[in-house]
Amino acid sequence: MATAVPESDELPEATDVQAQIRMATADALSSFCARVRSHTNPLLAFDTLCFASGLMEVEGLSQSALARRHGVTKAWFSQQVIGWLDLFDLPPPRGCRNLGARASCRRARIAVLDRIEESSPTPATVAAQPSRKRRRYPLQSEDPTVVYVRGLDLFRQWFRQRTRRFPVEQWTPDARRLLRKELTWFTNLYTRLGD
Question: Helix count (H) and strand count (E) of the chain?
Fold first, then answer.
């Protein structure tokens, strides 16, 4: 009795698929092992992956509890979990926001930061404000009194915010020229005080 012989291209396809699955599994496992071994705190890396896989939900542990256990912030722990989710293309566990929610929260946070930056005065607006002349102390050249100056602190705050987002090296030549022109008064005052 003759048995039906499968076509020659059917059998290799099944073994090719199985070989591809084995290779993908081996790649994922070696990537996991390499990342855990190269981490400064392997137990922390392992816990972040366990949380990303959803295993920690079964145990009832939250991101905050795990972050406290390892002495890191919840934000840092969450970033590591997101890294594992992206690397292995895993769906987010219940204790994690999905990609759309994370993007929405990021946009809202950036909008708040932009509003804060827009509401903070720039050096030009601070310089354009009329100066109030209040004399609390008699002016004596022998005993000068330095009073808290809000304008200088506002300028320092503006400069720190500006350089945090755009370092001075990235400024345009016009922006540098304008700031240099604004700071000329302070350099003149500095040289006068040095005499």
Answer: 9, 0
